[in-house]
Amino acid sequence: PPVGVFMIAGCGADLLINIALTLLGYLPGHVHAFYLEYVYYKKQEEARDGIFDSRRAPGVYSDRVNTGGRGYGTMAAAT
Q1: Of 6, 12, 18, 30, which has the highest C-beta tally within 10 A?
Q2: Are the C-beta atoms of 65 and 41 separated by less than 8 Å?
Q3: SS3 for 59?
Q4: pLDDT single digits (tens) 46-61
Q5: Could you tell me the end-to-end alpha-carbon distance of the chain, in angstroms, rounded to an integer?
Q6: CB 67: neighbour CB atoms within 10 A?
Q7: How far is CA 79 from CA 48, 50, 52, 72, 76, in A?
Q8: How confident is the model at residue 79, as a pLDDT?
Q9: pTM above 0.85?
């Protein structure tokens, strides 16, 4: 799970939390990783559809995950 979190969130608080959860138990680390990936791809799909929700997902500290990989709240112009 930490590799997947690193790929979508980078090196930050989310990765450290995931490593700690994985060390405490394999299942909590997986649940956390799946949640981060769900939020990331959901935000990415919403941005692609022209929907931008600026609210942060609960328990997610990475800006990259909260914006679906679109940077600091910027997104391509809708066509």
Answers
A1: 18
A2: no
A3: coil
A4: 988 988 888 899 999 9
A5: 36
A6: 21
A7: 10, 9, 14, 21, 9
A8: 54
A9: no
